Amino acid sequence: MRAHIKQHLVRSIIIGVLLVGAVFTLAFTDVSTTHPYKTAIDALSSAHIIDGYPDGSFKPSALVTRQQFAKMIDLTLGVSVTEDDVCSFGDVEVSGPGNLYPDNYVAAAAREGITTGVTLSLFKPWDNITRAQVMTMVVRAAASHGVTLDNPTPDYFAGTSSGSHIFSTFNQAPHGPNAQKAEFNGLLWGVVLDQGGGWDAWKNATRGEVAQILWRLRQKIDAVSPTTTVPASTTTTTLGLRPPVLLSPADGTVFDHYPRTTTLKWQGVPAAVEYLVEVEWGDGSSWWGSKSWTVSDTTWEFTFIGAQPGRWRVTAIGSGGITSAPSSWWGFRYTV
Question: Which tens digit of pLDDT belongs to each residue from 261-302?
Fold first, then answer.
């Protein structure tokens, strides 16, 4: 009973910080202001979903074990984890009373249908989790928490739809279809591609990549349930942020100047405390590069990467990290 009460309180605090409380951004020594995963790392570390190290670092390039990921995704979803969650995988260490990691977290992830283990009796908790496994578990988690993920369209498989198509030919079950669904629905947005433009599904996932994907999952869940019910001791908050209205450059603008200094402007959103600015680049039909910034103003200046098509959009962020739906994408192109 004591463990159950303790876990209930910890879960309430985590969800309160993540969804409706103030976000206390931690400055990690190895996560610069321009780090591609900074926004995700700040959000998840502030909620103690993925903590840093005692030396003040986050180690975004370090790998993640399967049992660590089970705990991270449980905390992202806010699922209840107690001593009553008995792990059925014989190779997972039993932590005993007063400690829920790793066995109870792994058991809770299995209970939610997020993981099925390597076999019915083996989980391989100390193996590093692969990107393919992360994508499969995230897609399952979305489905179990009310997020409707669309099936990829024929245009996606043909490579003619907007967005990336990295996994359009990755058909190996069970991970291929899940990777395609994750990519098509934007769960992989912001992930830094490997050299050569791909993202090898069989490579081990890093802490930075996991933070980015779990942050995107959290955004999807928040969009389904913008009103968060929390225990009576806290306050229920509904921000209802509307998407920002983009102002300039207008959709379809062509630039012929160098250097490629670009100024983006949008209308402010009431109750927004900052904005996530996203820029992607590619050939106009597919987008293989991206960068994002979190800013407090309604304008942002940056230098575009090359003479090629690009597009941009903005998401409003309110108190406690609640986000609006993103604006529509507006395209532009540089000729020099």
Answer: 999 999 988 788 899 999 988 888 777 788 889 999 999 999
Compute the distance between CA of residue 336 and CA of residue 306 in angstroms, rounded to an integer: 8
Are the C-beta atoms of 176 and 131 separated by less than 8 Å?
no
**Per-residue pLDDT reduced to its tens digit, 69-119:** 999 999 999 999 999 999 999 999 999 888 999 999 999 999 999 999 999
Amino acid at 76: T
Nearest to 289 by CA among 275, 261, 274, 308: 308
> What gap in Å lies between CA 138 and CA 144, rounded to an integer?
10
Q: Strand 246-248 vs strand 253-255: parallel, antiparallel, or unpaired?
A: unpaired
Strands (E), the chain: 246-248, 253-255, 261-266, 272-282, 287-295, 299-303, 309-318, 330-334
Q: Where are the domains of the chain?
A: 2-224, 246-334
User: For the domain 246-334, what is the CATH code?
Assistant: 2.60.40.10
